[in-house]
Amino acid sequence: MSQKPSLPKGTRDFGPIQMYRREYLFSTIKSVFKKYGFMPLETPAMENLNVLTGKYGDEGDQLLFKVLNSGDFLNKTTSEDYEAGSKSITSKISEKGLKYDLTVPFARYVAMNRNDVAFPFKRYQIQPVWRADRPQKGRYREFYQCDADIVGTDSLICEAELLAIVEEVFEKLNFEDYQVSLSSRKILEGIAEACGASDEFSRFCTILDKLDKIGLDKVKEELSGIGVSDKGLTTLTTILAIAGNNDQVLKRLSDQLGNTQVGLEGIRETQETLDHLGRLGKTAKKIKVDLTLARGLSYYTGMIYEVKPTTISMGTITAGGRYDNLTGVFGLDGVSGVGISFGIDRIYDTLNELDLFPTDNTQATKILLTNFDDIAQAHALTILGKLREKDIPSEIYPESAKLKKQMTYADKKSIPYVLMIGSREMETGIYSLKNMTSGEQKEVSIDQLLNELS
Fold first, then answer.
1. How many angstroms separate the CA atoms of 297 and 86, rounded?
2. What is the rounded CA–CA span in Å between residue 306 and residue 293?
3. Whether the domain at 1-45+99-174+315-359 and the domain at 178-310 fall into the same CATH topology
4. Domain covering 178-310: architecture
5. What is the 3-state secondary structure (H, E, C) of 166-235?
6. In this structure, are residues 143 and 128 in contact, taking their beta carbons and an 8 Å threshold?
């Protein structure tokens, strides 16, 4: 009995149309990365488990896909191991795991190749990662990450360049309906200090981050519950009421955070980043200084940014920030970095929903040559060679068949042109070229054909 094929949960096939669109996204983003001096890097699908574990917190460790050792992996285990539970036995039967993100393997690479890479090191990486998560809408067990990082410098030019890359990538994708929220851990620390909540910084930020979802009153109620005084809540209300353009927001915020050194430092860095961006010739019109953006504070130590669409319901499509000591856990201390990650799957869904993918696919077959018999086939192959010499994606129907069958094939593959090659055409050197979209047919010589399709 034949078995019905299926896919592992949380994984997907990508058919030709989806792949053309994904390749369009990858090549667009890659072209911008290269323009900004980023170099490509790839790391293996598998890493040693000791590289991966302990880097993503307990929850992340649970979501690592582990790879069984090859050979008779059970021969090193004892009945005591089974009784001791999964943790004890895992170390004996699995030494490797699928990578969970691109950042930890990148840190491992930098630490291992510290003498060979030129610091500051600018690298981009586009590869799949795996997480044993519960699959749901927009969440998969295998998905691509598309990262660019600069390590080995504290310069805020790097932050400005990454924000410039965001503007340029979305411009090339003809996508305009987005906003970049820009924040800084140092500004958040300053706000917490001004509100008297420095001791509860992480809980303060977690609650503040919920402002969009639960509203100001609920935020104040929850902050009161962790010991923020009425005076602190009044200060926070004043800070959150600050409005205006980015320069005005930063100016008014510095009046409020005048007594907090860390807050003023964060304001200065944010202003400097925006100034650099302006000098790079970018408009920054999509960037909004957002005093409530508090994501990733377990690892971000400086600037934080995230990008969301403004006209459709979709989560974050691009995000990043500055982190200190990326490679410290691998024995290379003091390497500061800043990075950005484009969420390919969400960007795909966004462009799809807004109908922004190009309809003409330059990579797909442009013309099909008909094949009616051995003589016509031999003649068609010489024309096919000329088309391909001019880099025109072209193909011949591989066996002689009725015209209807060949036309159906061209239709199913969305091939825009069909060149008829019969005895009359071979004698005169003038061929019938059919436009499959309009149904129009016209007579062309080979030179005219090459000019038209080049």
1. 31
2. 8
3. yes
4. 2-Layer Sandwich (3.30)
5. HHHHHHHCCCCCEEEEEEEHHHHHHHHHHCCCHHHHHHHHHHHCCHHHHHHHHHHHHHHHCCCCHHHHHH
6. yes
Instruction: Show the CA angle centred on residue 306, arms to residues 304 and 311, nearest 5°.
Output: 155
* CA triple 388-393-399, angle to 5 deg: 85
Domain boundaries, the chain: 1-45+99-174+315-359, 178-310, 367-453
Which tokens sit at 126? 């586009």
Gap between the Cα atoms of 426 and 62, Å rounded: 67
Q: 79: part of which helix (H) or strand (E)?
A: helix 79-84
39 to each of 31, 82, 183, 320, how far by Cα in Å?
A: 11, 46, 27, 18
Q: Which residues is 306 bridged to in the sheet?
A: 181, 319
Neighbour tally for 37: CB within 10 Å: 10
| CATH number, domain 367-453, options 3.40.50.2000, 3.40.50.9100, 3.40.50.800, 3.30.1330.10 | 3.40.50.800
Tens-level pLDDT at each residue, the chain (454 residues): 788 999 999 999 999 999 999 999 999 999 999 999 999 999 999 999 999 998 888 888 899 999 998 888 777 777 777 777 777 778 788 899 999 999 999 999 999 999 999 999 999 999 999 999 998 877 899 999 999 999 999 999 999 999 999 999 999 999 999 999 999 999 999 999 999 999 999 899 999 988 888 999 999 999 999 999 999 999 999 999 999 999 999 999 999 998 899 999 999 999 999 999 999 999 889 999 999 898 877 788 999 999 999 999 998 999 999 998 888 889 899 899 999 999 999 999 999 999 999 987 767 899 999 999 999 999 999 999 999 999 999 999 999 999 999 999 999 999 999 999 999 999 999 999 999 999 999 999 999 999 999 8
User: Residue 62: how many CB atoms within 10 A of its CB?
Assistant: 11
Domain 1-45+99-174+315-359: give its CATH architecture: 2-Layer Sandwich (3.30)
Question: d(Cα 121, Cα 98) in Å, to the nearest integer?
Answer: 25
What token pair was written down for 128? 């799949």
Residue 11 vs residues 6, 63, 99, 141: alpha-carbon distances, Å: 10, 15, 15, 6
Compute how many other C-beta atoms are within 10 angstroms of the C-beta atom of residue 395.
Answer: 17
| Type of residue at 128 | P
What the block records as the tokens of 47 is: 């890493």
Which residues are registered as beta bridge partners of 300?
323
Q: What are phi and psi of 196, to 5 degrees?
A: 75, 30
